[in-house]
What does this fold into?
Amino acid sequence: MTEGQQLALNQLKDVEAASEGSVEILDARLGDSDGRLRLEVSLNCQFIDKLEEGLPIRDRERFFIYIPEDFPFSRPKIESRHRRFSGYPHVQWGSYLCLYLAPDSEWDASDGMFGFLDRVELWLQKAALGELDPADAPLHPPVAYQSGDRLVVPRQNTPEVGDGPWYGFARLDVVSDERADIVGWDSSIKETDPPVASAILLDQPIDFFEFPNTVKGLLFILKKHGVPLRATLVSLQGALIENDEDAPLLLVIGTPMRGIVGEEEKEQHLVVWEVDPAVIPDLRRSLARYLDDDELEDIGEEAERAFWEWAEDADTTWCRVREARSEVTLRRDQKTPVSWFSERNVTLWGCGALGGYIAHYLARAGVSGLDLWDKGDVAPGLLVRQPFDDTDIGRNKACALKDQLTEIRPDLDVEAHPKDVLSNGMEDTGSLWGSDVIIDATAVGGVAKKFERILGSSELKIPVASVVIGPGADKGFMTLSKSGFSGGPGEVSREVKLESKYTDDTALTHYINEFWPDRDAGQEGRLQPEPGCSDVTFVGSAADVGSLSAMALNRIGAELLNSGDPEGTAHFFSLPQGVSNDEEKRRTYKYDPRHCYTDRIDDYSVRLSEEAWTQLTRIIKGHNERNDPTVETGGVLYGERDDASRVIWVDEVAGPPVDSEASREGFICGTVGVEERDKELRSQTDETVTFVGMWHTHPDDPPEPSVTDYGSMRRVLGGRISHSRKFLMLIIGNTASGDSVPGAYVFSRQRLEGAPPASLPEGRLITPFRYRAHQLFRHGRRTMRGMADLWTKISAPVRSIFKDADAEYD
Amino acid sequence: MVEVMTNKTGGELSEFPEKGLVFWPVGTGDSSTVVVDGKLCLQVDLRQVEEGTDDESPYAAVIDELERLLPVVEGEPYLSVFVLTHPDQDHCQGFEDLLERVKIGELWVTPRVFSEYRKDLCDDATVFKDEARRRIDATIENNGEVGSGDRVRIMGYDELLEEEEFEGFPRERLTVPGTSIEELDGHDVSGQFSAFVHAPFKDDSTGDRNDTSVALQVSLFDGTKVGKVLTFGDLYYPTIRKIFDRSEAEDLEWDVMLAAHHCSKSVMYWQGEGDKEEQLKQNLLDDMTGAAGDLGYVVASSEPIPSSDEAGDNPPHAKAKRRYQEIAPNGFLCTHEYPSEDNPSPIVFGFKDDGFDLMDGNGGDGGNGDEKSISGAVAGARGADEPPKEKVGFGNEL
It folds into this structure.
């Protein structure tokens, strides 16, 4: 007896001693072939309430409990001494009690026989009331004990079964000698293509809890449920006609017993009988019966008799069946964050330390399509932490990854792009439209910036996530811009970085320092794997990057499941070793979308934060209340311009400096305090927020630049009064009527230089331009993309305006 | 409907079932009544302890009850047949009183009673023996032509009639084991009643008195319905094993089985030759299980059954009860635990659609109240980690 078995016996003896007769050990003996200890116990069941429809439990019940050698790490099994429970739910082989639904998690080794007996009693209590399959629990379909080596994987759901059994064929995809997948169903021999299995789908549940292990028993059950013996035979013969001579003969039997007890609609539960190859020659000869030849008919009949004789005492061989039908298998990851990805299309940029793992997780999460982008090849050193194998060395990462994923999910629609996403993949927003989400795992800053540019100039509205990890590979940073958010992950990064400048949230500060280290600080944690010949990278293991990738992906999924609001979210997270403070393990920040306007000159995307927009409207409202609303007003804009992304973020709107002058004709923006405020902001935000331009109102007119406006730009960008290269002019039109229509114009020196002179009529704006611009504005953002073309067409008169304006000011 | 009156602990019946069985709470002893119809009743063994007439006593006043409930024929309470399984006091106590107060149409006897020394028999057994002798003599004298009140049936072997004291006893009044009786006090009850006699075996007639017990399968019929009860008196494992070995399956079927020898473990635990200790005879239990009808009950006619056995304890035995609980499809009933130990009542089986039906039955409380559920036992064994509630000394110098 092993130490564990002795423990089990001792525990049971303790129970017996405490039981006052309710638990009685009648026998304990070693000696079964598995080395198990067999304990014969008698249990008092008088206290168990019984119902007629329940398990017929007597006042006392006798059981054999089998203690495995490695008890308590393996759990015992229990069998009734009699066969009275045979046929009842969760009784297998006629006497074994199926105690645990999920044995690995439910079995408590520490509690040993104590917990085991508690479970036995609970099982008996439920069984006695007929509640082992309670009304809302999954039905336990009949068991077919696997006796063969062949594996059958049903992938395609069964056809609908009307009244009476359905006869037909299951189309097979023979994956290997041991495995065949069911990929289709045909009711007619004319329609089907080999290889096939015979199939009989019953219209009624069977009232047996187990499929028999004899052919005779199986035929009996089928007959009892409306399948005549002859029908079974003909069904087998059908598959023989279709298949090659040496193909195995399988009979798929379906019973409508998959689902929830009490629910009307049940899916078919499938078992597969592999007919003994020894009888196949007889079955083949039996086909002769159908030939129009007396002699052959006799041969056929004789062969048929031989089959029935064989069936008298043959055993059934049951294949292993592993369900892949979505109709009958609940995904094990349902309701988890990654369940969002199921059935969706994902574009993944970067297939390395982060993207490689993310791709694996996505494939398993059930994405239907995956676009992989990576220009890089697999280097030997990468195997340390990227999910490639030795044979992948030298291959493109996206291609190698595609092959791996196809192994996991043959059905996955995966495309590999062995290219640089920056220069090849991003502009094609048409193809991006097909994606439900884009994940940027390149850790290439340019990708985020370029994406901001693309977002600003397109109508692309899909969630985009960016994942990076810190230099120590112990912290992760994921930014997600949901569909409808004003920017991409780059904008979210900017928001959180900016927030960190104004906050006393030390956790955020720590993370910011991790991801935006001081440029002067050392490159601690950085590594150049092949000195002189490779990029500097981070130090980190497969375990590190795998964990961080998983954390990032979970956060993306959770966010997308959580809300469809057009928000941006930034997530910082850490491996346990990455932070010293529990509070810092995870940080999430949310941002509302900004107010966006497309620059009508250079197609910049101008994005006012909600706060800036509020400041602006408050100032105009206050001005209108204190002054004649037809008097213009204006002020200063602070924010950040990124010429790569062609985005100007406006974070602060200031009212007119005290030395400003305002009239119905115009607004002259003063300078008092502007420079100071600019310095202050630069200092506060590490040069992120600076002066970016000015705003003013056109109380009675649309937001289009006037001759004066252009003239001013020429002055500002001319280099004499400012060193600005670009200047944002934000005009708020129609403010007198309260409509407040903004128009954004990003002027640049290049645009002003070389503008040819032209004659112009009097007035602020020439009519054609005014008309066209107004029209464009009304047509909205979509047509703004045509602005560049338009600009060319109308630039000649505009240039002349500049010229005049210059003259005026000079 | 049969109701158990509540004014007497130990139970009073308002009436007999129209057809059925009554097991009386008479302590550890047997006292069973078979009601064939409104006129014919059969009493198997009798025990009325003295305190049985006391209102507070848990014991039934069986004789009072029989006198009150038996059909009245010619002005007298009438018991068609009295069967004595064997002449032990716990099976015939009060017989003298019964004989005086009730007209007993017919006695069923085993010859063993006549071979006992007078001093070995209790007073009631002696009265029984004398009454049986009287009837045998009258039967011999009248060549079997005797009326109710003088009738007697011997359960034994043909050779018996060759013995001097039975010479001239009519063969038709002798029932050989392996055959059935379908006549009660001169009434042909075939189709209504049948008693298949399993024992005593001839070989056992000189051994231990318990081994000579009558074993019967009594069947009651009501149209197509049938109820079968199996009684083994005080037989032990070897004889019961023999019965199961020798009999046809149908003669062993039971819906109610009276646990032999008042729930003695000697029915299924036996130390055979060469055994160091008694062994569980599972094969007999399996055979009993196989013979049980769907409605099967095991009835123990005994005092409440203890929760455990000590060596040398007399019946009833906890171990036996547990084994019966395992094999009784509908449950195990003890006459002194039904419906409760404090207030036992006769166990009455009437007839329903399928056969016997436990009347007024809630199955009893199932025990002496000390027994535990499995989880209760587990909780006791698992314990709780807590410090001792009092000082605990260790070491040398306390």
